[in-house]
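Input set for joint prediction.
Command: fold jointly, output tokens.
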Amino acid sequence: MTTAADRILAAVREIPHGQVASYGEIATRAGLPRRARLVARVLSHNDDAALPWHRVVRADGCIALERDSAAFNEQCGRLRAEGLTVDNGRVRRQRREPDLDQQVWGPAD
DNA sequence: ACGGTGACAAGCG
DNA sequence: ACGCTTGCCACCG
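tokens >
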């Protein structure tokens, strides 16, 4: 039988290299909306070394682990190794184009 | 059963 | 962008 934990782990494994997902997103993708805290719990108990747990961050981009803890540093390192920018414990979000208006509305002639 | 806790999230000032 | 508050839900003593 597939347990909730199984589906959560599967969802985590589907996060592409070089990308991150929030606990809430993973919960939803696992068919468990509003179970972000369950995702956190599952990860904290996970033993699978192959699981890309480092790609899971909080909705605001912050790393959820305690600052300067071994796990925290491990996560930072792995994310940077995948090409992401981690600044002050937070993964930089995709910066929106400053001229987004132009892209959407066309040049302001 | 009940209250505290936690690798969370969204709304509001 | 930050800090607070509230909602959330599984676990544990």
